[in-house]
Design goal:
The complex is a heterodimer. Chain A is mostly helical. Chain A has 4 helices and 2 strands, in the order αααββα. In chain B, strand 6, helix 7 and strand 7 form a beta-alpha-beta unit. The chains are: A mainly alpha, B alpha/beta.
Chain lengths: ~90, ~260
Amino acid sequence: MLFIARSGIAKRKSGSVARNRLKTVLLSERMDCSTDVTVMLKNDLVQAISKYLPVDKSGIQIQFQQNPPMMLARIPILQEKDSRKDYVKTV
Amino acid sequence: MSEVIVVTSGKGGVGKTTTAANIGTGLAMLGKKTAVVDTDIGLRNLDVVMGLENRIVYNLVDVIYGNCRLKQALIRDKRYSNLYLLPSAQTKDKTAVTPEQMIKLTEEMGSHFEYIILDCPAGIEQGFKNAIAGADRAIVVTTPEVSAIRDADRIIGLLEANDINQIELIINRIRPDMIQKGDMMSVDDVIEILAVHLLGIIPDDQQIVIATNQGVPLSGRNSPADQGYINICRRITGEEIPFLSFDMKKGIFRKMTELFRN
């Protein structure tokens, strides 16, 4: 599945790649939301969510999208191998 | 009634000077008394593109400082008697002139010309501020590349902040073959991203380089870019002209009904 998804990205035409990159960068620029602000926002989100869930800090992605204007945060959660055991324990 | 139009882009090298020269020529051909003004003080360009570099005596800074009268600095084009160039100074720099002085200059020119085309320097600093100060409307030139479009977006924001409300876009160096393959953003893509009124599209055209080498206008070459500029000039004067289409199967530049119109 992962392989299919990757080859799909590779086949995307460079014109539409350019369009999507521009949309993302211009949206944050128009909102005056600089890279620094995005980084601070990311750190705050990590802090807030880490209180409750283990977060994979290196995999976090923050994107802005037009129509409708939206901020999309992709925050992967770490799943430890023996998490089920812990779960049983706590029950 | 005169109209002052600034040609700007933010990014350098997208075709501002070529556009200013060709719009000036096109408007003069339509019978409009037109002046093109090189506002890039210290980096004179428009004169060589128009082939008038050997005829410069006085320049924009001389007029502003009162070293000469406006009429003495204006160079009349050899081919089109309606076309005049006000060249930039080569020895001074951008700080030699203030926005207030530019407003005064464009007001003075307004009583002599129907159209005044200001060729703006690249960037958003003093030179840009000078160029837009006296403008009634703006033409933003971009190419279908990420860097040029990003800068165009910033420029549009700055123009709006300076109360220039009539802002129109020219997309330069369109490559229909690359758009067809999906390797270049289309006209629709650029318009969607920048959300601005389209004034015209100019295909990538070798004739531009050849004409610039020779210091002659594009007009009369019947090339795709020439046609694009003619259409732009007619739209500036208020005519409704359909946009060029790039249908590769039916010959590249077949005219199409108002597909790109708002």
